[in-house]
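Incident review: delayed structure delivery

Summary: a single-chain prediction request sat in the queue longer than the usual turnaround. Root cause was a stuck worker, restarted by the on-call engineer. No data loss occurred. The affected request and its eventual output are reproduced below so the record is complete for anyone auditing the incident later.

Affected input:
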Amino acid sequence: MRQHVNPLSARYQRPIQTPNWAEVFQDMSAPLHLDIGCARGQFLLKMASAHPHQNFIGVEIREPLVIAATAEQQQLQLRNLAYLFGNINFESEQFFAALPGSLEMVTIQFPDPWFKHKHHKRRVAQPELLQGIAKFLKPEGRLFIQSDIFEVVDELRRLILKIPAFVATHEGEWLDENPLPVATEREEYVQAQNLPVYRALFQKVG
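Output delivered after worker restart:
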């Protein structure tokens, strides 16, 4: 079950509080991977453990999930991983500007669908956020999206392709396989049901 949080409510109309990155990451210069809507953070825990020379940041709007994920990160003593609570669509450019190192990868995986048309403005991947990603992602940096909800991911794909800075890295609309070495919990669940997952990978040019 998806646990919805309304990002337009007053509680989430404030900037994401970023820490002193020098106290978080052992290597501030390491390439950075940002996962937007990281949920329980299991994907990033596995990625950070497998890739110690990269830094990872997960942003999640459901605070209890961030608290639980951070507890696991601290237990494992991973100095290349951080979880942040908040609404990334509120003053997103300020958030991106405060990130450490070189932003080389952004992932948006299985975002909350918000099916009703009147609720589409609650979806995480708003045009302003995508423009911010395009601005702060390093040249040749990558943006990966995936979902089992075709309507949601197809709309997201079309919004990304409207931004001149992004080009698809593959022929056709969708990737056949996940280019990342770790699957999210939602991805594992969907594939266990033999249901399709729609994926696309973009690169920043220029």
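Verification: Helices lie at 21-24, 42-50, 63-76, 92-97, 127-136, 150-161, 185-192.
Action items: add queue-age alerting; document worker restart procedure.
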